[in-house]
Write a structure and sequence with these properties.
418 residues, mainly beta, Methylamine Dehydrogenase, Chain H, five-stranded mixed β-sheet, four-stranded antiparallel β-sheet, 33 strands, 4% helix, globular
């Protein structure tokens, strides 16, 4: 038996020889908790002038805006080749494990695969741009089951196809077909059988990714649909509350609400871009009711996501479809802390160990910014030059590695401190 003293000495040796990195998977879109945040430590606080070291890259992924999902020693990502969608699996050294064709992908405006796989245990889940939900075996890539939710629920497709990333909550997966039959559904994650349908809502899907949380003993799923943000009972699908966009969204023709709601301490923040701004909802003690407490027009995020760090929200706002600035709001009251220009371009953001990782969606520049409400100050940067199209895939971070996807390419960088 190894003594506690030996374990302590071994740990001390690691700390003396180098920084101890706490590893974690990134098993779905925007990380373990779908909030764009990693708990990892021991990461570089500044990068070399040329950027962090490239560990490996994969080419030939097809057209896609999927981020990488990293789980249990493998990397998963989607892409479209010749109008067909594929899931690709690699080991952590970039060696291909398998490649599975799952079916037709979105071939209209901004044709490409959209979905980041959601991985749990021996399964992964995706939704195609055509609204078909698939469950695949994570080890082999074999399709276990599928459901054409768009056909079943008579989906009215949004202009840019279905862009939802499947949410696992307990034994079910939650999806938003946004059809004339039901807007939100839950499926048995093992079989694909329908567990419930929220037929109280028949609003169109609008690219939003739902989140689930517990409030006052109740399990609640929240998402944005075309006309409102809604809260449902996650066990039954019963509509608990809704807050309509009509009295503060200025452009009701866009029907784009692409950022997942942010839940914290009994409140939910949503933001939608296109000068529609954002809003904070205060939930009741048991979570079955909600009231709007403030709105803002500054942190008007298009689709790059937001992160909440130490009572402040960070993200990039919409000035036009190709332009935007970077802003910080105080969570409690929506007070603007800064609204700063960086290249004049918006983009996506994730967070780890006190730093924001921001990715310019037009120029491909990746920067480190200290997560402080005092200012937006770039401490390090490098630029992605491979791939074509907008830089819309959000970064992923796992085990001291930064995963960046652009077009046909996935690039993996070493960001561990030495």
């Amino acid at each position: 038996m190894i003594s506690n003293k030996v374990i302590a000495l071994s740990l001390l040796g690691v700390l003396l020889c180098g920084t101890l990195t706490v590893a974690a998977d990134w098993p779905q879109f925007r990380g373990p908790d779908r909030d764009g945040k990693s708990e990892e430590m021991g990461l570089l606080q500044e990068w070399p002038a040329e950027g962090p070291a490239l560990l490996w890259e994969a080419e030939g992924l097809g057209e896609g805006y999927s981020s990488a999902a990293i789980a249990q020693g493998a990397v998963y990502i989607t892409g479209m080749i010749d109008d067909e969608g594929y899931v690709f699996a690699f080991d952590l050294d970039g060696r291909p494990k398998w490649k599975t064709r799952y079916g037709p992908e979105w071939t209209k405006s901004y044709q490409a695969a959209r979905c980041t796989p959601t991985v749990e245990d021996d399964r992964l889940y995706i939704t195609s741009g055509q609204g078909v939900i698939y469950c695949l075996d994570a080890a082999s890539g074999n399709i276990r089951w599928s459901l054409d939710a768009a056909a079943k629920y008579r989906t009215k497709f949004p202009r840019w196809g279905m862009s939802e990333n499947v949410l696992i909550d307990g034994d079910q997966i939650l999806c938003t077909p946004g059809g004339a039959v039901a807007s939100v559904i839950a499926l048995d994650k093992n079989t694909g059988n329908v567990l419930w349908e929220c037929k109280e809502l028949t609003q169109q899907s609008c690219y939003c990714n739902p989140v689930a949380f517990t409030r006052g003993g109740n399990r609640i799923v929240a998402t944005m649909l075309a006309d409102s943000v809604v809260g449902l009972d996650s066990n039954t699908g019963k509509l608990l509350w809704r807050d309509d966009f009509d009295d503060y969204h200025l452009d009701r023709n866009r029907l784009v609400n692409a950022n997942a709601p942010v839940y914290h301490d009994g409140c939910i923040y949503t933001t939608s871009g296109y000068s529609n701004g954002g809003a904070m909802l205060q939930l009741s003690v048991d979570g079955t009711g909600a009231r709007r407490v403030w709105t803002d027009a500054v942190l008007d995020v298009h689709h790059g996501g937001v992160v909440l760090v130490d009572g402040h929200l960070y993200g990039s706002n919409w000035r036009s479809n190709s332009r935007g600035d970077w802003a910080c709001l105080r969570w409690d009251d929506g007070q603007t802390m800064y609204d700063s220009k960086w290249n004049g371009n918006k983009g996506s953001v994730i967070y780890a160990e006190g730093m924001l990782y921001c990715w310019d969606e037009r120029a491909g520049e990746v920067v480190l910014v200290k997560a402080t409400p005092d200012e937006f100050k770039v401490t390090s940067s490098f630029t992605i030059t491979k791939g074509k199209g907008p830089f819309w895939a959000h970064p992923s971070l796992a085990d001291g590695r930064l995963y960046l996807r652009h077009g046909q390419y996935l690039m993996v960088y070493d960001i561990k401190a030495r």
